[in-house]
User: Fold this.
Amino acid sequence: MEKPKILIVEDEEKLSRVLQLELDYENYRTTATYNGKSALELLTEQEWDLVLLDIMLPELSGMEVLRRVRRFDESTPIILLTARDEVYDKVNGLDQGANDYITKPFQIEELLARIRAQLRQPRKAEAPQHEELSIGDLAVDVDAREVRRSKQPIDLTPREFDLLVYLLKNKNVVLTRDQLIEHVWGFDYFGDTNVVDVYVRYLRQKVDKPFDPPYIQTVRGVGYTIKEYT
Assistant:
């Protein structure tokens, strides 16, 4: 079996070298680069099984690299390496398409566990053709990733869209935060469950607030549901 191929994008050369030695020892094939521009070139020109991406990089930030990569590659697992510990930075990274994040300083055993978790995940399959979901005047074309309410288009981020789709597939069913984390962020997501509350708030601002009635409901002490009015 061929060794998984990992790209390490980290401008601290000492840390990058440690990561490379540890990953090589764990039987991964590694390549290291130290700035965002060269990372983007490598990601454009080659296929990788996983990417470790620092946010603070010279020439091109890790967040910008992530945004550009996700325009042409939605499936390669990307784990952000960040010294920042603010909820906003974590949410922003996940919102742009990162699969996971780990905050510096970290234990190598934890990073290795996160890498294994991502490599166990199947690559994203294409959405089923012509799948459409609806509730009242809210309509979602899953294949085209288009959302409309009262025939007005609504622009959602990828994570907001995935959350809305999962709620719609389970309309009138109360879903816990853990269920939403598992199905929208992935079973092996290690972050805080309060990210669900943040995204539900974002979604309500776009899908419910400008319209009537509000579909997304909070079930106190349990979670959330999208409710069909009769």
About this structure: DSSP finds eight helices and twelve strands in the chain. The domain at 132-226 is CATH 1.10.10.10 (Arc Repressor Mutant, subunit A).
